[in-house]
Amino acid sequence: MSQSIKVFKFGGASLKDSAAIKHIGEILQRYQEEKLMIIVSATGKTTNALEKVVNAYFYQEGDAFAALDTVRKNHFQILDDLFEPNAEVYAAINDFFTEIEWVIEDEVQDSYDYIYDQIVSIGEMVSSKIVVAYLNKIGIKTSWLDVRDVILTDNTFREAKINWAQTTKNATAVVPALFEKNQFVVSQGFVGGTSENFTTTLGREGSDFSAAIFSFCLDVESMSIWKDVPGILTADPKLFKNVMKVDRLSYKEAIEMTYYGAKVIHPKTIKPLQNKNIGLYVKSFVEPEGSGTFIGSDILVDYPPVIVVEKEQVLLHIAARDFSFIAEHHLSFLFGLFATHRIKINMMQNNAISFAVCVTNKPKRINAIMDALKDEFRITKDEHLELITVRHYEKGMLRNLREGKIVMLEGKTRQTIQLVLKDIPLVERIDKVVV
Ligand code: ASP
Ligand code: MG
């Protein structure tokens, strides 16, 4: 049998500047005997920067050309650090930026989401070109693959859905031939293409998912996500003390964690891997020798408490104006509305006459929902809340989490507790101390 393929995914933080890209080169030197399918994100914060270009162009807020120039300069800085002035890669990168220029020179004619995908996808196009050029320069023979020739999607721009059957056909037709030539193939995360050759994107932070799509379609040996943390941690070390690495996780536990908002892996990543029983490693590019976290099937361990914090939450209390019960017909209408406006419900609770939902603050979409409801329902909205989810919680820890906060909503199952919290305004805290 031919040698099996492994998939590696490198995110923006691991590609943030020329030193970071050199470091990836060092990591990859050690794998030269392997067949690697390497999926990359845009460099550093490029996707955010390109979103600014889109907004400046579409909403005419600010200078789209200046915003684009910032992104271009960042990339040319990386090129200047890594390559000789006459290297071929300059022309390739320049072409991608010129494509965006052509778009923003014209009047706005298409939908926001369509334009977004045509512009923002360039981030992954240029980062992958740079990585391929650099690897070849240091003697690691690598092919570049345009992901739009493999990942076929529908035309739900910004959240495109995968056509799995056709994507599998494409992957098996295209990728093995590339591995005949070189041991490494580099392609873009986050991006796909429609049957009419329009570029789509798969949702923010979607490169993990792209790597899982390749893993599934090529039935690979394993997938590794290289991150700036030692593995999956029990909480965000910026927010909590005594954080530990979890060595092994089951697919189910990983799905639960990502569902509740753990940002280490994109939520759509696990299912394709689970379906083919492909192991997932989350490893540190800072300490590549570290053991990381392994995610696979049938892992039964006593999990420590795992805390996931989601900021910028909004709590909506929705009650029928005619005082009728929030019964099935209301609920199906409400769920439908949230689905149409692509708002994920992070937590909910219903009483006789009101329905409370906690969602991440996306002001435009939330206002649209409130608008659609206002005739029939009374709605109150609380903003700037925090949703804390604890898997495998221990009793003692809950008091600490509530400390200094007002609990707006609480939900509990055997494994999981969720709290929607609001900071107690300073004045009230002082009151408490005096009493
Ligand atoms: N570059 C894209 C983003 O920042 C995709 C990714 O990083 O996974 O959302
Ligand atoms: Mg990113």
Q: What is the topology?
A:
Blueprint: E1 5-10, H1 18-29, E2 35-40, H2 46-58, H3 64-82, H4 89-105, H5 112-120, H6 122-137, E3 142-144, H7 164-181, E4 184-188, E5 191-193, E6 199-201, H8 207-218, E7 222-227, E8 232-233, E9 245-246, E10 248-250, H9 251-259, H10 270-275, E11 279-284, E12 293-296, E13 306-320, H11 328-340, E14 345-350, E15 354-360, H12 363-373, E16 377-391, H13 395-402, E17 405-412, E18 416-423, H14 426-434
Parallel strand pairs: 1-2, 1-7, 2-4, 3-4, 7-11, 10-12
Antiparallel strand pairs: 5-6, 8-9, 11-12, 13-15, 13-16, 14-15, 16-18, 17-18
The structure holds aspartic acid and magnesium ion.
Q: What is the domain total for the residues?
A: 2
Lateral strand order in the biggest sheet: 3-4-2-1-7-11-12-10
Low-confidence stretches: 429-435
Q: What's the main sheet like? A: 8 strands, mixed
List its salient traits:
435 residues, alpha/beta, Carbamate kinase, VC0802-like, 2 domains, eight-stranded mixed sheet, six-stranded antiparallel sheet, 14 helices, binds aspartic acid, binds magnesium ion
